[in-house]
């Protein structure tokens, strides 16, 4: 895993590499207690979950001090890998299932991530205080947009703030209503067959539209 991370992220440091090693060590233990991802995915944890999450880091460099919410985080993806890569950025990892949040907070503590907070809640109930909203395909994009759009700071000065959504398959109809949406193919970032149909959807959010 470390060799791939060094190739894809030349700027990665030893502390981050050790945290990713620790994540690969402790996640299966938590998964055996609480079903966070499918059992068959454990053997493919690096590609299907860690690297998939880090595709966002290949496209976006989050500024120090920005606030990011990961909606429907499940086992902590994409939030935990992104929090490792951006230690000066604050991540709220949100899920309505309490046992998953227990696991997320436990994993973050074992990794020494002080910039991660797991929150048991529905995203709709949270205050508008975020610069970015990230997630891995929890619902159709138009439905997700209706939830996410209300979570951005009203006085936000981040020029590229927006929704960053990991999604696979054919979703052309889902993004038709959004004229300014951008789509990135993950296979162009990481040459693994798993990413052949995986993409990043980015929708900028402007203050005047809130």
Question: Any overview of this molecule?
Answer:
The chain is 36% helix and 19% strand. The protein has a 7-stranded mixed beta sheet, sandwiched between helices. It has 210 residues and is an alpha/beta fold.
Which key features would you list for this structure?
210 residues, single chain, 7-stranded mixed beta sheet, Rossmann fold, alpha/beta
Task: Give a brief description.
The protein has helices at residues 2-8, 14-33, 45-59, 79-85, 98-111, 141-148, 172-175; strands at residues 67-71, 90-95, 116-120, 132-136, 162-168, 182-185, 198-204. It is α/β, with parallel strands linked by helices and 210 residues long.
Number of strands: 7
Q: Trace the largest sheet across and list its strands.
A: 3-2-1-4-5-7-6
What is the terminal separation in angstroms?
A: 41 Å
* N-to-C SSE string, H for helix and E for strand: HHHEHEHEEHEHEE
Instruction: Give average pLDDT, whole number.
Output: 94
Poorly predicted spans: none
Second rung of CATH, namely the architecture: 3-Layer(aba) Sandwich
Quaternary state of this entry equals single chain
Class in CATH?
Alpha Beta
Tally of contiguous helical segments? 7
Q: CATH superfamily, called what?
A: Vaccinia Virus protein VP39
Helical proportion?
A: 25-40%
Shape: globular
Q: Per DSSP, what share of the residues sits in E-state strands of 2 or more residues?
A: 15-25%
Radius of gyration (CA) equals: 16 Å
**CATH fold type:** Rossmann fold
Structural class, judged by helices and strands? Answer: alpha/beta
Number of domains: 1
Query: Describe the biggest sheet?
Result: 7 strands, mixed
């Amino acid at each position: 895993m470390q060799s791939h991370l060094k190739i894809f992220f030349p700027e990665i440091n030893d502390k981050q590499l050790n945290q990713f090693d620790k994540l690969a060590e402790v996640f299966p233990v938590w998964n055996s207690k609480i079903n966070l991802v499918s059992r068959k995915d454990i053997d493919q944890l690096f590609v299907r979950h860690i690297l998939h999450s880090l595709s966002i880091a290949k496209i976006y460099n989050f500024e120090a001090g920005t606030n990011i919410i990961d909606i429907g985080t499940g086992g902590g993806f994409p939030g935990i890998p992104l929090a490792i890569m951006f230690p000066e950025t604050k991540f709220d990892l949100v899920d309505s299932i309490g046992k998953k949040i227990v696991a997320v907070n436990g994993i973050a503590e074992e990794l020494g991530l002080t910039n991660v907070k797991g929150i048991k809640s529905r995203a709709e109930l949270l205050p508008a205080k975020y610069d970015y909203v990230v997630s891995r395909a929890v619902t159709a994009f138009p439905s997700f947009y209706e939830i996410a759009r209300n979570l951005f700071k009203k006085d936000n000065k981040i020029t590229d703030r927006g929704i960053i959504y990991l999604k696979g398959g054919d979703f052309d109809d889902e993004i038709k209503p959004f004229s300014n949406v951008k789509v990135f193919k993950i296979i162009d970032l990481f040459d693994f067959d798993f990413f052949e149909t995986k993409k990043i959807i980015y929708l900028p959010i402007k203050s005047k539209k809130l």
